Amino acid sequence: MIDVDRLLSDVEKPSRYIGNEHNIVIKTWSDIKLKVALAFPDLYEIGMSHLGFQIIYYLLNRREDVLCERVFVPGIDLERKLRDERIPLFTLETKRPINEFDWIAFSLAYELTYSGIITILDLANVPVFSKERAESHPLIVAGGPTVLNPEPIADFFDIIFIGEAEEALDEIVDIYIKWKEETKRSKEELFKALSKVEGVYIPSLYEVEYKNGKFFNLTPKYDWTPKVIKRRIVYDLDNTFFPTKPLVPLQQVVHDRGFVEIMRGCQRNCRFCFAGYIYRPKRYRSVEKIINYVREIIKNTGYEEISLLSLSSSDYPEIERLVNLLTEEFSKELVSFSLPSLRADNFSLSLAEKISKVRKSGLTFAIESGSERLRKVINKGLREEDFLKTLEIAFQKGWNNIKLYFMLGLPTETNDDIYQTIDLVYKILKLNKKVKLHLSFSVFIPKPHTPFQWERFEDKGIIEARKQVLFKHLNKKKNIVIDIHDYNMSFLEAVFSRGDRRLAKVIFDSWSKGSRLEGWKEYLNLTLWKEAFSENNIDPTTYTREIDINEKLPWDHIFVVSKNYLIKEREKAHKGLESGACEWKVLCDFCGVKHGE
Amino acid sequence: MENRVVYRLAFFKLNLLKYVGANDFLNFLGRALRRANIPVKYSEGYNPRPLISLGFPCPVGVESRREYIDLTLQEDMEEKELIKKLNDQIPNDIRFYEAYKIKKSSLIEDTYGIDYELYIFTHLKDPFLLEFKNLDSLEHRKILARRGNSIKEIKPFDYIKEISYQNLRDNIFLIKLKTIKLENTILRGEEFLELFYIKPVLIKQIREVILNV
């Protein structure tokens, strides 16, 4: 056990490293067959805000033969101290060095945490590249949404799990334990057994070819290696595991509340939205189950707020009944509820009104663009007339704080679309002069497995010019706050989103030069990345350009939705044609996702 | 009339839990109270908060043998039950061990002073000891200290009631310091060390809040 106290006296936010949270699981080391260090390659306050991370923690710990402890990227100050004093990185539960575990399993939710993988492995004295590791080293595993294009980080991992872990994790654990207990063990035997599990991708079993500086092909090395990896899907969401005794952090984290996932998947087909494609098909939990979970979570955590998670709250079929029952039962206990991802319509407004009885917050809508034309291109399905009517009613009901999310650099966007956004803002101000408007702009990033996976990531000059147009017309208003996401951060995210296997070396090199925590604006240093790209003879714009539809893509071996379907959707987008909401057996565009029937 | 019962509770906060800051501690307590089903009173308004008052909050990194909170409940509760229910919901290094009813929450007013145990290391033992023995000569020395959002000049000696030291081993000393509250401010343990020309390194600090008798 490492004496953590000695390390923490002069580091920033020491409570990140102390463990001791309510509902922490600490098991006896000697009784266990598989020991997992569950790693999140960003700071504590980010990792602890991810539901997926807590699902895996309890999914593993619910088994008697498995223990799972947590580790996060340390702050720059603690990293320096650990290096100076040659102390290995430790878990929060028992302060044990993470290289003593059988697995170091990473939860990857954001591309700009990739350098954190290296920080964690290096501080654990584990070789970063899988080919440099011996059988005695821990198995390095990854899962999470960003691994749906696993290639940029493929060289770091022994095993990458594609899809939803609730079912498959037990299968993988069983195979590993069986393999570990056999005396004569080689990694190849383990890989052979694991590669039969749907959703398991073992990068070292594939050969990659490049031509003219671009990705060309990825082929299996052995006849037993699967050619295509299918995303693992939990079909019966209502009866699958959900953690109702989550860890309650001792310090404020980004999403400092309880969560119940009410729905997985989304029917809306917003063409830019990664989540909208990678969590298909749409599945619900029953109202009764959700209420039970809420009850248990409040009892087990004492949280004053529960977030009902889904990609589009108002599309949950019984949302009204659910919200009524929840507010009826819990408002007297002063527990409030939040519904993220509300659509900008009257129905959503009435829901927001109901849930704001205990704690009143502002209203947030992601309308993506003020241009009706562009909203058709991205299939947002929102009419300006309806949106303004919704706001009018919101103002009448006393909401005066409105936050709107927009994207810049969407496919086919021109300056005219930006003026449409400005017009829309003026129309809102006309409805209510006192409104406080927070306008948040991000830069569109083409994501794999979406109809926009071939589109370009817009140049800095163009984004900068559009930003100036917005500022010129909107920034002088006292009641408007504008924030625009850092271009450099979006640029790197765009590179990794559609990257190939050559990027692992670039990540390693820029990390070696000192790059850390790129998801934090204050730490991102693009110069180090530029140097690393150039030293590896890689032009990063290879990954941000428009890709020809006939080119092979680095993630083609990962099946999420059918490519033909994406091509059709893309064609419709460029014609400004919308697609209806998908509803299995009612309206289906045949995206190729199975429904478990 | 509205029901409102105020309890004063004493607790200790040791080991790694000393790294929990005051605001986080309030959230932590609010959630522990809800888990324990203790009928805590909430503030009115858009963002109801449990009525907990901390007095002079214990700084991050400082352990404490005795801290207080004033807790307002909606109804009477047996003190023993209150302590037990709360302790069942929190880690072992924080324990409540005393509770009694008071008329109104007034921790700052009721605080007499703070006792400190400062474990220090000095690389120049003899000069440090010499300074210590001539402490009285530092009576008028002023130091800069943060008070709220501003930095003020204070005279540490005005706060000090009693002081003694023990040489634990080699260059490690334990300084025992009893301080009093002055114009609703207190002296922090590390501020006392600012008095010395040869400033020792603070290894560990434990405090104990003393209330008016």
UniProtKB/TrEMBL annotation, chain B:
Domain of life, source organism: Bacteria
Residues of the DUF2344 domain: 7-167
Protein name, UniProt field: Radical SAM domain protein
Pfam families: DUF2344 (PF10105)
InterPro entries xref list: DUF2344 (IPR018768)
NCBIfam families to which the protein is assigned, alphabetical: sam_1_link_chp (TIGR03936)
